[in-house]
UniProtKB/TrEMBL annotation:
Protein name: Checkpoint protein
Region (Disordered): 250-269
UniProt source species: Coccolithus braarudii
Family per similarity comment: Belongs to the HUS1 family.
InterPro entries xrefs: HUS1 (IPR016580), HUS1/Mec3 (IPR007150)
Signal peptide start and end residues: none
Record GO biological process: double-strand break repair via homologous recombination; meiotic DNA integrity checkpoint signaling; mitotic DNA replication checkpoint signaling; mitotic intra-S DNA damage checkpoint signaling; nucleotide-excision repair; telomere maintenance
Length: 337
């Protein structure tokens, strides 16, 4: 598929939720392939026990709060067209949205069954049991027999917007100083091995990103691939180990002054760098979950906001080329000051 449009700016979650019940909401969809969704949910299941799920006409999104995922905020979004052949959603909530909480182990178990069986058709729908429990029901029609397999996954519909506050994606004031570099998918997988080796030497890893601006011009020319990402650890001020990824693309974000004057070329300045020190076990856990799930990746943006956060946004291949709706998973790592 074509390369996605890279953006390092996070999109905050929509928190407007009107009171509703499963009886006033409808959702039904037929899977094209459940493989990528299964791998995503399996990955999230390695990080937290439960999550918030948002269903809209265009996307399926997941959110994990820092308290549930080892201090790392996680959000993921898949285009509906990349998962379902057809789908229908009706809700009284804003943007025709259905939001609920679900235990990831239960959801992963149902999706694994959908992916592994030789099925003629797999559907998922929102139902309500006799006891009033809202449920995601997966209906698997086996192709080699007139047998239908059902998996019921209990969920809890969100009634109060305040419940979603811990799940909302963070906003940062230091975006002007951020440096973002693009990592090909093979480097994202290799990064896991690098970080795992560094874990034995230190509790923290220092990441430094350089945007590759030519000296004296202050401009990183498109296609130059001069950006770099360096990872460095120290042990007892005696041993220093570092790994540098060179020849990367950088993501150029116009400054606020540039936006006001309609000019996206800033005044000449030297090459820029941004640094962030993060807890290495948090970074290792996130990378391990990505690689172990065998989820298909396109590329990733590593965005460093000095003294604020390290953001790793991994783009996933999407079949929604017509709608241009990207699929991705993003990790927000707090920095050690």
């Amino acid at each position: 598929p074509a390369a996605p449009s890279h953006s390092a700016r996070a999109r905050p979650a929509q928190l407007s939720v009107h009171a509703g019940t499963a009886s006033t909401m409808k959702f039904r969809a037929t899977f094209g392939s459940a493989a990528q969704l299964t791998k995503l949910v399996v990955m999230l299941d390695k990080l937290a026990e439960s999550c918030a799920v948002h269903l809209t006409a265009d996307i399926v999104s997941f959110q994990l709060p820092p308290s549930a995922s080892g201090g790392v905020q996680v959000a993921a979004e898949l285009a509906q067209r990349s998962i379902f052949l057809d789908h229908r959603i009706e809700s009284r909530a804003e943007n025709n949205r259905i939001t609920f909480f679900v235990k990831l182990t239960n959801l992963a178990r149902a999706l694994r069954s959908c992916s592994r069986t030789q099925s003629e058709r797999v559907q998922v729908k929102l139902t309500k049991k006799m006891n009033g429990q809202p449920t995601l029901t997966f209906e698997i029609q086996l192709s080699d027999a007139q047998v239908q397999v059902l998996h019921d996954v209990p969920i809890r519909i969100v009634q109060d917007p305040a419940e979603l506050q811990p799940y909302s994606e963070p906003e940062y004031s230091a975006a002007a100083e951020a440096i973002s570099v693009v990592l090909p998918q093979q480097d994202v997988r290799g990064l896991r091995n690098v970080v795992e080796r560094m874990r034995v030497f230190s509790e923290y890893v220092l990441l430094t990103a350089s945007d590759g601006r030519a000296a004296g011009t202050g401009v990183a020319a498109a296609g130059d691939r001069n950006a770099k990402l360096k990872l460095q650890v120290e042990k007892d001020n005696l041993v220093e180990i570092s790994t540098t990824y060179r020849g990367l693309d950088s993501v150029q974000l116009p400054s606020s002054d540039d936006d006001q004057h309609g000019d996206h070329i800033s005044s000449p300045r030297p090459a820029l760098e941004s640094c962030a020190r993060v807890e290495i076990k948090r970074l290792a856990r996130a990378l391990q979950s990505l690689v172990a799930s065998d989820i298909k990746m396109h590329s990733a943006i590593c965005c460093i906001l000095p003294e604020c956060a390290l953001i790793l946004k991994v783009f996933l291949p999407s079949a929604d080329e017509v709608g241009n709706q990207p699929s991705f998973v993003v990790f927000y790592f707090p920095v050690q000051l």
